[in-house]
Amino acid sequence: MAEAALETVPAQIADHPAIASRARKLGLKASETLLDRSYHHAAMKGLPESWKRGRPDIVHFALMEALATPLFTSGDLDVYVHTYGNKIITVAGGLRIPKSYFRFEGVMASLFRDRTVKSDDGKKLLEMHDGTLEELVHDIEAERVVGLSSSGVQLSAEQVVAKNNTDRCVFVIGAFPKGHFSEKTTQLFSCTYSIHDSGLEAHVVIARLLYDCERLARM
Amino acid sequence: MAEAALETVPAQIADHPAIASRARKLGLKASETLLDRSYHHAAMKGLPESWKRGRPDIVHFALMEALATPLFTSGDLDVYVHTYGNKIITVAGGLRIPKSYFRFEGVMASLFRDRTVKSDDGKKLLEMHDGTLEELVHDIEAERVVGLSSSGVQLSAEQVVAKNNTDRCVFVIGAFPKGHFSEKTTQLFSCTYSIHDSGLEAHVVIARLLYDCERLARM
Fold first, then answer.
1. What order of strands is seen across the sheet that includes strand B124-130?
2. Contact indicator for B170, B1 with CB cutoff of 8 Å
């Protein structure tokens, strides 16, 4: 997932009443809470590119979708999240994240604060470090970088998967509410596809792509 | 979706501190809030079949999945939710429900309280009435009722759809956290299938089944 609308409240709006109120309810410092359009709409007005930010629920759904697939649970899929603020989240194999948004919010807030989330027996479940999408793609030694976007070439998910049937292929899906990928992102793509003739939500694209990966692997 | 773990807080536990505390934060009467394991775990201990209840997030994800498909947005899919407490929710065509769980919770609480949720211009978006799954199946004149369950006959989603390619076919997916369908539910099934060799979450089953319905329709 790229340019994910997932970040903690930026310092410049941390004092806004809407922000402070939510932080109090959660018992957290304002700067530790997740920026969330549902609660912080009024506070977000002055933020740059605010239309692209503050939607942790999109990441939640998209991650939920990916992590619930047999492809992931069997260890055949690596999942990374690159965020709007250029943080990279690495997801441990076999991770289960809470379906409850309340719990997910808590896990993410901990991750931003501590840079790591561990299980009770000390196993790293999630890790975060600073990084651009370009750095991530380089670090994981991707051979092909395939962008999924409504502005891409029309092709079914089945065909997208068949055409890119290599081990080190990265499928990049946007995890933001509006607009398109930035140029910094699109310049990394080997190719860009649209798997439907109208826009689809990130979790639907992910569900379909990964299902078709599984089907191809079974043949 | 059948036997969905979606209900308002039962009267017998409405006075529990965990329940009262959450209700206060939301500014609602305790009996109007959704029973939610994430907040009410301690209060749920004495409830009958508590392991099957209090997971509105499962319904949220499952509904989100179904409503985000082109099959639904094009008007080719009707979606109903039958709840643990035998309420039937009818979903208006083209409905968009909030991805934000906070907003979804609010919409559902309103639905339980008012029995209907309308758009700003008065259009009915969601309706609720008392009813069993059997009554629903009868009311919608289903020709075939196909159950999806990990205890069903192993068949791919693609084949399940191909075998049940009729207009008035109802696919029934459980929207509860643990266990299996009750006998009252399973006795309604023409057949029962499992689309994977291990359990899958409701939203994954829904995503795959509906994707395969679309594919079959395109051929």
1. B80-82, B87-91, B124-130, B116-118
2. no
- At B100 the pLDDT is 83
Query: Range(s) for CATH 3.40.1280.10 in chain A?
Result: 56-218
Of the partner residues B25, B37, B99, the one whose CB lies closest to the CB of residue A58: B99
| ipTM value for the complex | 0.91
For the segment(s) B56-218, the CATH number from 3.40.1280.10, 1.10.8.100, 2.130.10.10, 3.40.1350.10 is: 3.40.1280.10
**Number of Cα atoms under 13 Å in the Cβ half of residue A105:** 23
Q: Using the beta-carbon criterion (under 8 Å), do A198 and B70 form an inter-chain contact?
A: yes
Residue A154, amino acid: Q
pTM here is 0.93
Residue A196 contacts B, CB cutoff 8 Å: yes
pLDDT band of A219, cuts 50, 70, 90: low
* Minimum-distance CB partner of B99 among A57, A68, A100: A57
State the DSSP H helix or E strand holding residue A130, giving kind and residue range, or none if neither. strand A124-130
Q: List, for residues B158-182, the tens digit of each pLDDT value.
A: 999 999 998 889 999 999 999 999 9
**CB contact at 8 A, B173 and B205:** yes
Residue A99 is predicted with a pLDDT of 84
| Chain B residues inside the 8 Å CB shell of A196 | 70
Most A-contacting residue of B58, B203, B205 (CB-CB within 10 A), to test interface: B203
Residue numbers in chain B where pLDDT is lower than 50: none
Chain B residues in contact with A70 (beta carbon < 8 A): 196, 198, 200
Average pLDDT, chain A: 95
Cβ contact, residue pair B68, A203, below 8 Å: yes
Residues 76-115 of B with CB under 8 A from A: 98-103
CB contact A119 to B (< 8 Å): no
B68 — contact with chain A (CB < 8 Å)?
yes
- How far is the C-alpha of B179 from the C-alpha of B174, rounded, in Å? 10
Residue B219, pLDDT score: 65
